[in-house]
Amino acid sequence: MLEAHDHRSLGQRLDLFHLQEEAPGMVFWHPRGYLLYRLIENRVRQQMQRDGFLEVRTPQILAQPIWERSGHWDNFRENMFLLVEDGGRHSAVKPVNCPGHIQLVQRMSPSYRDLPVKLGEFGLVHRNEPGGALHGLFRLRQFTQDDGHVFCAEEQMREEVSRFCRSLHAFYADFGFEDVEVAFSSRPAQRAGSDEMWDVAESLLLESAKQAGLECVMQPGQGAFYAPKLEFVLKDRLGRSWQCGTIQLDLVLPERFDLHYVDASGQKRRPMMLHRAILGSLERFMGMLLEHHGGALPAWLAPEQVIVASVGEAAAGYAERFAAKLREVGCRASVDARGESLSRKIVDSHQAGAPWLVVVGNREVEKNAVRLRRRDGEQRDLPWDEAVAALVAECRPAAAA
Fold it and tell me: What top-level class would CATH report for the domain 306-395?
């Protein structure tokens, strides 16, 4: 029996998604859940556009030579879904997006004038997680990374890291996460690249974190096999910590793929590569979000923002017109015209996670008004136009600052 605050229980109650044994570790998104997924995705996309990222899409399956060159074949193969194609050639369903982005930059052959090159992708990835480790949206085999890669000169790297770090607090606050901590993860025992390369990467990333005003908790040996990283840890209302966003300074993959740009003197130079994600996994972040808010999502994120409840048959048409007006101005609104009592409709609106219930009966029809009822029980009577304006203001989407 799942606890009430468990995101899997909330997903059932709010009709967002389900999981089933025929697709272990993969999500069946219901219409309301996919709407929430897209709202989160769109907020990330706003931030990507603000930060100058160009959105791309790369293949789901890449042949063995690319994974050998990236180091994943030697260091991550047990977590990959492998395929054997005609002729015995091995391929893998991608567990990460970075090798695909590197292929794009190689085709660009950038000069110093083109840097930094910033590529972003909502990349669907697959990882062969053990069945016993799967856990709702928190641990999946198929999930979406809000992935971004910055290819830059060394003199540009510090500001790119600082800009990313500075943007995160406001971003997470939009979703209700105010408490953010930062950890620094250094070289693991199993890794690619020389010790000298790791010395440089770790030193530069720590220096950039200090420039951004961050105080980091040290996590020795917890870096990726190709790069040290900064990890941003969110604390939820239950006091639990969740590792979320990351930025990694990678000197290994640019060397392994022989990436270069042409500097002002016409010489070839090796770019630095930053791997960055604000959420890490959209699915995992949604699970965190549901449990943090107990299913009572902020109004801009609620799949159903307003339920218009009619009291009595005579008010049903009025309720439909008011809901239609809300939809016209951008609110997600539905009508509850069932013959149930108002108290039943109030309970059901809470169960559906709706931030606002609009009550209309004969008195409201006569006055061309409505009664607004907030999720916390606060009520007020307003004329039609004022009510529409108030709800639009309350339900307005969060936007990149």
Answer: alpha beta
| CATH fold of 7-293 | BirA Bifunctional Protein; domain 2 (3.30.930)
- Environment class of 316 (CB within 10 Å of its CB; exposed 0-12, middle 13-18, buried 19+): middle
If DSSP codes are grouped into helix, strand and coil, which group holds residue 275?
strand
Average pLDDT (81-107) is 91
pLDDT digits (tens, 9 = 90+) for 362-373: 999 999 999 999
User: Hey, which residues are catalytic here?
Assistant: 98, 127, 145, 147, 149, 229, 275
Residue type, 369: A
- Provide the 10 A C-beta neighbour count for residue 277: 23
The predicted pLDDT at position 398 comes to 72
Q: What is the DSSP letter of 227?
A: B
pLDDT at 330: 93
Query: Is the backbone peptide bond immediately before 116 cis, with ω within 30 degrees of 0?
Result: yes
Q: Cα torsion at 68, 71, 72, 73 (round to 10°)?
A: 40
CATH 3.40.50.800 spans which residues of the chain? 306-395
pLDDT of residue 397: 82
Residue extent(s) of CATH 3.30.930.10 domains in the chain: 7-293
Answer whether residue 127 shows pLDDT above 60.
Answer: yes
What is the pTM for the complete model shown?
0.93
